[in-house]
Amino acid sequence: MGEVVVLAVSAVLLAGFYAAMAYGLGLIYGVLRIVNLAHGGIIMASAYVTWQLFDRFAIDPFLAIPIVLVVFFAIGVGIYLGLVRFLPRGPAGAVQSLLLLFGVWLVIRNVAYLLFTGNEQVIHTGYATSSVRILGGSFSATRLAVFAVATVALFTLHLLLTRTYLGKAIRAVAQNPDSCTLAGINVERIYVFTFGLGTALAGLAGTLASTLFAFNPSFGASELLKSFVIIVLGGLGSIVGIALGALVLAFAEVFAVYAVPPYLTTAVGFVLLVVVLVLRPGGLFGQRVLR
Amino acid sequence: MSRVRFLLAFAAALAALWVAPLVLPIGDYTHNIVGLTFMFMAAALAWNWLGGYVGQISFGHAAMFGVGGFVAARIMLSSGLPFSVAWLLGGLAAGLFGLLWGHPTLRLRGPYFSIATIGVGEATRLVATYWSDFTGGSSGLSLPLAGNPTKYQLYWYGLYLLGGAVLISYGLARSRIGLGLSAIKEDVEAAGDLGVNPTLYQDIVLFLSGTMVGVCGGFYASYQAFIDPQDMFSFDRSIGLILMAVIGGIGTVLGPVWGAIVFVIIQEFLLANYSELYLGLYGALLILIILFEPLGLTGLVRRLHRLAIPVRRAT
Questions:
Q1: B123, B284, B294: residue with CB nearest A107
Q2: Structural domain containing residue A202
Q3: What is the pLDDT of residues A23-80, one digit of tens each?
């Protein structure tokens, strides 16, 4: 019984990170109708940036977050203005954007490999080993901090999207870009901003990931997959949907230890994806996101 | 190109390639590499049936390549069946495996399908790596020497594979199924309203594509005489097929053939010396092609053709 509670708390902590990780992908897809295949590459790149900041300038990963957000917002804007902008919109551009951003991912991976070799890297903070007791289980302080940061980030984003003019414009563009143009919203500027914001969120996820896991240049593939599973599970409608999707995935993964050997936990998300797609093509919660 | 002209050109090319090693002074290395390239061409064409004709980009074709290779290898190891039968059985196993994951996921369109295939590829790779009773795990499998064709002989088998793949590519593109596939690519729902069953058509194409890629896996197993799951199921293998098709011209009938030539040249001659740059180079190629010539080499040739032959003016 006690073990189940500990695993449940563990799953909730993991879900916080997952939700933050998936939101960037969901936001870009919701507004631009483009799946950012470079998402995993951005997460990996950000883990390296965080590591470099820590290693060279002794900046704590959690204090590095503002820097990472700015840097990756700029990178996102750069990718949009330099590449994505030239693709056709709509279904015709879907295949092209997929291949293009996949190419970006390969390039990022190669750059990381050239700069930092293929070795695994870990960030050893001073508090990496300290832990906190909750409900009879002990949890590392880092995981609690990651959960806190992810939750704050999601709430901030929720406020941005629902309470500000910019956020309302983003949501309006997601619904109908053509009417937005008529209403005097600069749609192109919203696209640039959204791509930057989504990339910055992936950057945040990378920083958080770097405090939890070891990483190398091929890190990010399963993060991309999990983010995708979450947006399919939860729908793109709301923060709540993303949070629920993240919870379902995290619980499935954590409790899978009872059923499958450890090396297969990565496959759990995928199996979940196929099952959900077969049973409920519209996602578990919220509106239909799939056609 | 009319059907007759196509078949004549096809037969002539096949015959020329069939006799070429017998009459031309080709070195062993080139001979073997060309044989392997035939296989890559066939696999890239097979990828294109799904990725190009239907527009369902698969990042998971390595799964079928690996299944085909390992089933063929296991059959050759455990029975006295000839290698060609083992390849075919491996291909069928791969095609069925494709249906197993493809039937539920092919109802997804575009990016959703693509990301699901990343999952398929990764899950298959993980299972194959840890299922060492079947795949030999990280130490792999060695094929029996007896009954396995030599690399020299494999040139002709590669040519047969390519010939089959080209015929299917042409046949698919020109048939009723091909029209159905373009309809699905343009608009699934409209295609459904016009009596094209998207599920059935896509299942057929994935089965064909998976079977062909699986047979290619069997060929590769015979070619290397040793296979291990990390190589057979690697993500890079799926990427390779995508690149060949994209370089040559995604969705065109013969584009992947030219793409495979470029791919093998890059791999054998440029990257032998700069192996640490290959991912970035592939990525950069993808970006450049998508931005400047989405139909790859085929698009480039068409563009040059238009430039060379001025439009005839009505007199």
A1: B284
A2: 2-279
A3: 999 899 888 888 888 999 999 999 999 999 998 998 899 999 999 999 999 999 999 9
The mean pLDDT of B167-195, rounded to a whole number, is 85
Choose from A233, A236, A270 for mutation: most chain B CBs within 10 A. Answer: A270
| Token pair recorded at residue A188 | 């192109």
CA distance A1 to chain B (A): 31
Q: Do B111 and A35 touch (CB under 8 A)?
A: yes
| CB B243 within 8 Å of CB B135 | no
Q: Which residue of A has its CA nearest to B127?
A: A264
- Number of structural domains (chain A) is 1
Residue ranges of A 80-109 with Cβ closer than 8 A to chain B: 83, 86-87, 91, 94-96, 98-100, 102-107, 109
Residues 6 or more apart from A175 whose CB is under 8 A from it? Answer: none
Matching residue, tokens 């095609």: B95
Please tell me whether residue B164 adopts helix, strand or coil conformation: helix
The answer to whether residue A289 is domain-embedded is no
A25, A29, A84, A102: best to mutate for the B interface, most B CBs within 10 A: A102
Token code pair at residue B46: 């097979």
What CATH code is carried by the domain that includes residue A41? 1.10.3470
Token code pair at residue A12: 């909730």
Cβ <8 Å between A274 and B107: no
Look up residue A285 and give its DSSP letter: S
**Cβ-nearest to A267 among B126, B281, B290:** B126
Would the pLDDT of A286 be above 60? Answer: no
- Residue B173 has phi, psi (to 5 degrees) of -65, -35
User: Which residues are within 8 A (CB) of B132 and not within 5 positions of it... i.e. 6 or more apart?
Assistant: B138, B139
A274: nearest CB among B105, B189, B242:
B105
> Coil, strand, or helix at residue A121?
strand
CA dist., res. B188 & res. A127, Å (int): 54
For B92-112, write each residue's pLDDT tens digit.
999 999 998 888 888 777 777
